[in-house]
Design brief:
alpha/beta, Rossmann fold, eight-stranded mixed β-sheet, two-stranded antiparallel ribbon, globular
């Protein structure tokens, strides 16, 4: 693993890490993080795949983790910028340095939603979606709906307006977010069009994506529903060719997966689901 810094077209420096295998298999995996999740969460999985011959890249969007500015208040960033500019800088890097490799992209939560904001998504041979959906409140379970209306309807915009950023960590929602990213997250939850609304407000290449995609969701992910997952594949990415894999808590050594813990080292046994897909084209 080595640290690299990738410059975006608007000259913002993104912190990334490159995991290089001893014997490369001519395959590269890019990991797009979830909202407010630092890239370190994915390091164990990245090293696992590097040990299997894959070259792997992790990175932080602007405003997150090692790509965070000294001052968060009024820092200009959004999920749309993450997709159109930050993620684009990574695909440019891959095109320039790994042209002849087979290319894969793992999108965790929002990391899958931003794929439609970048035409370069067409270069990937296959996608892996983990814990992602159209998160519109109407797709959520009853208890989660109440939390969503209160949290994203009142609490989140109030604190974001008061502080100039959203202190997500105060509420157990990951890293603090730039205000633009927080308000885009609010759109995903409260606007019926969800992801499609963000695509309308930026650029939309979602319908041009026609690859295979393995869609993974966990039985105990409280914020994810089958309805929301199917909505994303049917209404946002209708031309992708999905295969679905539901992971049960009984498959986890600690009996917990949720929205983040698929990537914890104690769930390493679950990573073979992705490995088998990328190496042999099958689902275990």
């Amino acid at each position: 693993m080595k640290r690299i810094d990738i410059l975006t077209e608007d000259h913002y420096s993104l912190a990334a890490h490159l995991f290089t295998p001893q014997i490369p298999n001519q395959k590269i995996l890019l990991i797009n993080s979830a909202t407010g999740v630092k890239q370190q969460i994915y390091f164990s999985l990245a090293q696992f795949f590097a040990d299997k011959g894959f070259t792997v890249i992790t990175y932080d969007y602007r405003g997150i983790g090692l790509s965070k500015p000294d001052k968060m208040k009024s820092f200009q960033a959004s999920m749309r910028v993450w997709g159109t500019t930050d993620y684009k800088a990574l695909t440019d890097y891959i095109k320039n340095n790994f042209e002849d490799y087979k290319k894969y992209c793992l999108g965790h939560s929002v990391g899958a939603l931003i794929l439609g904001m970048n035409k370069d998504s067409e270069m990937f041979d296959e996608f892996i979606f983990v814990g992602t959906q159209n998160a519109y409140v109407g797709n959520l379970r009853f208890r989660t709906k109440i939390e969503a209306y209160l949290g994203f309807g009142i609490v989140q915009p109030l604190f974001t307006l008061l502080l100039g950023y959203f202190p997500a960590s105060w509420f157990g929602l990951g890293e603090s977010l730039p205000s633009g990213s927080a308000f885009d997250w609010r759109i995903l939850i409260l606007n019926k069009k969800s992801t499609n609304k963000l695509l309308e407000q930026s650029v939309d290449f979602s319908k041009s994506l026609k690859q295979k995609v393995l869609v993974i969701r966990a039985e105990d992910d409280a914020w994810l529903t089958e309805k929301g997952v199917k909505s994303l594949l049917e209404n946002t990415y209708p031309n992708l060719r999905p295969a679905y894999r539901l992971i049960y808590t009984s498959e986890s050594e600690k009996g917990e997966i949720g929205h983040i813990n698929f990537f914890r080292s104690y769930n390493k046994n679950l990573w073979k689901i992705i490995l088998e897909r990328l190496e042999k084209g099958r689902i275990t």
